[in-house]
User: Fold these one by one.
Assistant:
Number 1:
Amino acid sequence: MASFVTHLVCSSCDTKHEAGVEQHVCTSCGSPLLVEYDLDRMRDAVRREEVEEREPTMWRYRELLPLRDDRNRVSMGEGFTPLVRVDALAAELGLRNLWLKDDGQNPTGTFKARGASCGLSLAKELGIREVSMPSSGNAGGAWACYGALAGVQVHVTVPTSVPPLCRAEVLMHGADLVVAGDTLPESAAAAAKHVETDGWYDAATWREPYRLEGKRTFGLEIAEQLGWSLPDVIVYPTGGGLGVVAIYRAMSQLRELGWVSGDLPRMIAVQAEGCRPLVDALERGAEDTVTWPEARTIASGMRVPKSLGHALVLRTIRESGGTGVTVTDQEMLDAMVRTGSTTGIQPCPEGASTIAAIPKLRESGVIDPNERVVAVSTGSALRYQEAMAAATSRP
Ligand SMILES: *Cc1c(COP(=O)(O)O)cnc(C)c1O
Ligand SMILES: [Zn+2]
């Protein structure tokens, strides 16, 4: 199967980069690269009705993914997770049309499986033997897991604050665990040194173009599951912000293909009160974030004080007409129980943060009660047993 990828393009200065060879960031300005597809050619080659007949994984969208040869696919059923209409929860939150995307049902229990499946498939296709990445927990676990399936050696550099479960998971999949630094930026610096001295393939977020491609399937699925239509609002728990860019990009590509029509959704980034660089930059009207000092939150996936892609994330939020909002850790814990008891879904603290944000977005008039809102639960509560215990402990 041929891919419809034409080239990679710099998200900042538009410089074109060749596809099919190892690429990381823009060679002229150092910004993240984005993958471009020949959508005109694709429009004639595949119809959405064909896609609907395929296997229920993210690879049902293979024409919209960058892999050239299906034999390099590294997959174990990730994606096409349920989009659940949650009427009882919606009524409590003062909305009429609310869906929760439950990505906790992925391998390793988080949506990081989407990025790992796509990223390691491409690494395999490019003949890469060893990859390296810093992680605050969930990405490292997912890459270790898919690395085992791919037969690629994965080195995961984590800060000392990483949850014990994530360390064990990396080791269980035979990956190399490097503990370095107390914060994610410190781990990232340590991992970057290995990339330079040991020649490991740099798979750090925003420095490896294909994770984002995998995460785009989030947006493709939401559109398909809404009967090939777009919601008005997407509420997303944001750390590095890859998902914000990925979902918005996927939906705009679907519109260009003619598979959906109408306005693109407003992207709402939810951040933790204790780590809110994007919300801060939105409030200041700044083009980029500054490193958030002493980042603190139980939601490890949102504990990202600064990321290479933040400028692009801010541009995307603004272009979509969206905004940012913060919630406290206690509000996340309360929302875990509220969601669990009204829907049966078990969201991680990050996922629950989207539910905690909705009453605030209603009160400030950002969301109208009649709008179609999709909240994204990026992972399962089962990965956060301490948070589950804290959320349910009675004084
Ligand atoms: C990584 C992660 C996030 C943040 O994802 P980005 O798209 O990088 O902002 C949110 N939730 C969970 C559970 C995560 O693991
Ligand atoms: Zn550039």
Number 2:
Amino acid sequence: MSDCVLVCNVFNTYIFLYRGLLIMLRALAPIISVAPVRAMMDERFSVLVENLPPAAPVTVQSHHYSDDQDDWEAYGHYISDHNGTVSVSKHLSFGGTYSGVEPMGLLWSMCPVPGSRMGLRLRKKDVCTPLVVNISVYSGHDGFRDKKPLASAITERWYMAPGVKRIEVNENGVRGTLFIPPGPGPFPGILDMWGGGGGLHEYRAALLASHGYTALALEYFKPGELQTANLKFQYFENAFRIIQDHPKVNPDSVGILGLSLGSSIALGLAAYSNIIKPRACVCIGANHTNGLEVHESKDGFINLEQAIVDENNHHIWRNIGLAMMRDPSNLVDVQRINCPVLLVSGQDDQNWPSVEMADDITQKMHDVGKAHQLTRIDYPDAGHLIEPPFSPHFRATNFMVKDKYKVIVLWGGQTKPHSDAQEDSWRKILVFFQQHLYSITSPKAKL
Ligand SMILES: *[C@@H]1O[C@H](CO)[C@@H](O)[C@H](O)[C@H]1NC(C)=O
Ligand SMILES: *[C@@H]1O[C@H](CO)[C@@H](O)[C@H](O)[C@H]1NC(C)=O
Ligand SMILES: *[C@@H]1O[C@H](CO)[C@@H](O)[C@H](O)[C@H]1NC(C)=O
């Protein structure tokens, strides 16, 4: 009897010790955590690695497999503190795709992995799914690609907030996608237009809806149709009216957001339309050459034979825009515009003379006593493609000029200042729309 009790006790003690050892080992294994795990695309996250040895060199890497089936990654080299911790929000990266204290460097410095196709641009295609990023920690600063990670964590980045509705539009010939915020409304509306690459891009409109705007992502020609598209007033007026007439929209409170060619349409509509009255316009990479209705008479949009190519054979178009500016008949009469306008330009824009155009717009509005309607933000070392926050920076990417005629276009910008510009301008764009569109819908928004 007593022997048996003794044996059992010894056995239990071993089990106890063994379990304790397991718990200790588990506690000592490095762990990585990302907070919030599920976030909006324009929200910051924090990445924390714990349980490392003190003063250990490690590499923190992010990886994303895109909707286009390409692998993107960013990484920073860190040294753990005396507690065995690396906090990406607080600690220095000593190198990698970014350096310094860069809480969001793991997103904005993403590049295609070595060996990828050339000239890629990362754009979320399916906004109903999140952009999934896998963040891993590896020991050492060299050769992480050949190693197994010490730990990994998945984080989701969303363009579409919970409750936002996505509706495909094909009405009066207008092609696009409407995003409606959750709640009874009515909401202010925004017509969202991208540039000369053509096609339908939903992600920015989805993000605008997540901030309380009914937003229409508009397709106005197909990729590769820049030279042949006929941009009719009526098409854009119809698109604007689809937003305005929606029961969830305050019809007096619809604005326009355009980038590049999209900004020239925004300005053209604001200056000349007798039918629609935008309440506010935001132009990124400002372009006030007049594209509406004039295409057929001008024999193609831009004469690509005038393009300059750099030593990498990347196309620079800014001089084409400068040449177009010399003939005032090419330009929108911005003096006619009667709504607040925000111009966002990158001072290293190689694609279009957006700073010179912003200067010309400023001068002309000033001359007719409309300077108060204009707000300008110019970002040093930012390029043409100022996207929502934390999107990677693309200095040069593939561009389909015509069917089967592809070039690499130089957009410009340096990665870090360009990324700062994206974060700062997005906040200012939202404040601008809030001031000019939301105050009309909801007196509360003024508080
Ligand atoms: C190290 O960890 C201790 C205990 O968790 C904590 O109180 C202290 O603030 C940490 N120090 C640093 C530099 O993070
Ligand atoms: C995250 O990446 C690591 C390193 O490549 C891999 O081992 C892990 O399986 C990935 N996790 C997921 C959920 O894909
Ligand atoms: C600027 O607008 C004009 C006219 O709408 C257009 O031809 C040109 O392609 C635009 N520039 C860019 C860079 O899209």
